[in-house]
Write a structure and sequence with these properties.
Layout (H helix, E strand, L loop, with lengths): L7 H7 L1 H9 L18 H6 L2 E6 L1 H18 L3 E5 H4 L10 E7 L5 H12 L3 E6 L5 H4 L3 E4 L12 H20 L5 H12 L1 H11 L1 H11 L4 E6 L3 H16 L2 E6 L16 E5 L7 H16 L3 E7 L3 H6 L2 E5 L8 H18 L18
Parallel strand pairs: 1-2, 1-3, 3-4, 4-5, 6-7, 6-8, 8-9, 9-10
Helix pairs in contact: 2-8, 2-10, 4-8, 4-12, 10-15, 11-15, 12-15
Bound molecules: 5-amino-5-deoxy-1-O-phosphono-D-mannitol.
5-amino-5-deoxy-1-O-phosphono-D-mannitol binds next to α4 and α12.
């Protein structure tokens, strides 16, 4: 079943490119317009949507956080991302014009199911982004957009995450199309960029794996790790931190790079590994420079720095002890490649420690209790 891989997690990370490719498949017209026939919500309902609330847990919630940056940018409506278990207990503001998007790999997460039930009771429309056909969450939603990542067996979610981002992006582009907040040409351009992503992910698998493995060997005995990022790099940092916790049992914290001086920098001491997601130096100079200065600050305090940065970024090379390169890609799509190195890092660390990477202690693949 593992098809030659020694764990499902390893196999499933290597299926990241296919998960993205298959989730894109059949969702465009010949002209490049987004076609979501399977989504049974009328275009008029979508046109009227004035707020999106993503409800999800764990990794799926980080996919939602990534999507927030893209959807707000493309559709110009507010997107909130809420942990499903927090959602219904705070009496959220829900109207028929609110679209609640429930993201779940398994489709059986009880917290997410309860959140969507609450949203429907309040008269909002619920769209599920789900990887498991016929599971409870899509069955109880008004509409479903399936991710086509294929069955995910390892407890740590990997290929489902990249496919959730792609599905949420398709939803965002579809909304931009029906609400005319982007020109058709702009949508087509993003579609082309999305179609190029599987090869870029493959590039990371082919070219970065050995650097990651060497870093894992160097850092395997570290007791804690910090992960930081900004903009879409922030949820990627959160996801990298979660992966390492789950399978390598390493104490990690992921946070927004801008928070460093508001507290977490106090944790940095000699040899502390700090993983930094560095935005491209092209276009978004301000953020790039700010994140690079974050690397300098932790380095000055003795941190061992690992940068995830765009190929050829001279600052990453100058300030980081190790660099996991990403091929050039638009900022909004960079999480699809950046997370891959972090998935590999968690896998390698767990393997070096001799842990069962597919079935980490205390965890279940789907959490069917509240
Ligand atoms: O099946 P779901 O996507 O609803 O699961 C949500 C979380 O339980 C899940 O992502 C969990 O955080 C994973 N173990 C992460 O690797």
């Amino acid at each position: 079943e593992k098809g030659g891989w020694d764990s499902f997690m390893d196999k499933e990370i290597h299926e990241d490119p296919a998960a993205v490719r298959n989730t894109l498949l059949g969702r465009f017209s010949a002209q490049g317009d987004i076609v979501l026939d399977e989504v049974r919500i009328e275009p008029e309902v979508f046109r009227a949507v004035d707020k999106i609330i993503v409800v999800a847990c764990g990794t799926a919630s980080y996919a939602g956080m990534v999507a927030k940056y893209a959807i707000e940018h493309w559709v110009r409506i507010p997107v909130e991302v809420e942990l499903a278990h927090e959602f219904r207990y705070r009496d959220p503001i829900l109207t028929p014009r609110t679209l609640v998007v429930a993201i779940s790999q398994s489709g059986e997460t009880m917290d997410t199911l309860m959140a969507l039930r609450h949203a429907r009771e309040q008269g909002s429309h619920v769209l599920a982004i789900c990887n498991t056909q016929g599971s409870s969450i899509p069955r109880e939603s008004d509409a479903v957009l399936y991710t086509h990542a294929g069955p995910e067996v390892a407890v740590a979610s990997t290929k489902a995450f990249v496919s959730q981002i792609v599905a949420a992006y398709l939803l965002g582009l579809y909304l931009a199309q029906v609400k005319s907040t982007l020109y058709a040409d702009e949508i087509h351009e993003v579609v082309e960029q999305l179609k190029a992503m599987p090869d870029k992910i493959q590039w990371v698998l082919d070219n970065v794996s050995s650097t990651v493995e060497a870093a894992a060997k160097r850092l395997v005995n570290s007791r804690s790790f910090l992960f930081l990022g900004r903009h879409v790099g922030y949820p990627v940092a959160m996801e990298g931190a979660l992966k390492l916790k789950e399978v390598a049992y390493t104490f990690t914290e992921g946070f927004a790079a801008g928070e460093l001086k508001h507290g977490p920098i106090a944790l940095v001491e000699e040899g502390e590994p700090v993983v930094v997601i560095v935005p491209s130096a092209r276009g978004r100079d301000v953020l790039h420079n700010k994140v690079v200065s974050g690397i300098e600050e932790v380095k000055a305090r003795g941190a061992f720095t690992v940068a995830v940065a765009e190929e050829g970024d001279p600052d990453a090379e100058r300030y980081a002890d190790v660099v996991f390169w990403r091929p050039q890609c638009p900022t909004l799509l960079s999480p699809l490649v950046d997370v891959v190195s972090l998935q590999l890092l968690a896998l390698d660390m767990a393997r070096l420690k001799g842990y069962d990477v597919d079935k980490p202690r205390n965890l279940a693949k789907s959490v069917t209790v509240e």
